[in-house]
Amino acid sequence: MKDDSALRRWFVEEVLPFEPDIERFLARHCRVRDDVVDLRQEVYEHALMGAQRGIPQSTRAFVFTVARNLLIDRARRDRIVSFDRVADLDLVGEMDISATDRAYTAREELRRAMIGLERLPPRCREVVRLRRVEGLNIRETAERLGVGHHTVERQLTLGLRALANFMLGGEGRIERQTPKKLRRKDAP
Fold first, then answer.
1. pLDDT at position 27, please?
2. Nearest Cα to 56, choosing from 4, 131, 2, 3?
3. Which SUPFAM superfamilies match (predicted)?
């Protein structure tokens, strides 16, 4: 656990400079514009809680991963809320969705998530499994797989994107950005 002064200094010097970028990122991916400020505060709160275990090597990647995960969690909650609304209609007798139907829907979503996970490349699948199913942190995941932290972060990002795409009806493919070709000064 980090002391408060080191954590405060890290937050002010390394996290706050990204505030405009974080707000743009959240505004781009959030349906309700009024929620951006609240989400930004949640990002800060989660980033600070995470940094108490150890200051991340790449603050930018860490903060944007936190923001992305919060957006994913919010999307999941929104989906759950929609089920609750349907459940509320059961109470007034306008619609009959039984607990069995809800359990079936949840099982189908879990089955789809498992299929999406199996479609990922082996290393990516293992990183997602260790981080999201077993709950290991980045350092523990990197140590277990014998890879660097950046590799874990990158594989997790690619895997979660592909998994989210698959869950939303896409093909769930890993989309890698190809690096720009370097110009050779001595090319003929």
1. 86
2. 2
3. Sigma2 domain of RNA polymerase sigma factors (SSF88946), Sigma3 and sigma4 domains of RNA polymerase sigma factors (SSF88659)
Q: How far is CA 9 from CA 6, 16, 57, 61, 80, in A?
A: 5, 10, 15, 18, 38
The alpha helices in the chain, defined as continuous H runs, are: 4-10, 19-29, 36-51, 59-92, 99-119, 122-128, 138-145, 149-167
Tokens for 34, please give them.
């009024």
Exposure string (b/e) for 102-127, b if CB count within 10 Å is 16 or more?
A: eeeeeeeeeeeeeebbebbeeebbbb
Q: Are 41 and 11 in contact (CB under 8 A)?
A: no
The answer to whether residue 95 scores a pLDDT higher than 50 is no
Can you tell me the distance from the alpha carbon of 168 to that of 171, in angstroms, rounded to the nearest whole number? 9
Query: Which tokens go with 156?
Result: 């997790």
Amino acid at 80: I
Higher local confidence (pLDDT), 80 or 119: 119
Average pLDDT, the chain: 80
The DSSP symbol for 134 reads: S
CA–CA distance, 71 with 77 (Å, rounded to integer): 10
Q: Rounded to an integer, what is the distance from CA 101 to the centroid of its chain?
A: 28
Q: What is the pLDDT of residue 171?
A: 83
Phi, psi of 176 (to 5 degrees): -100, 140
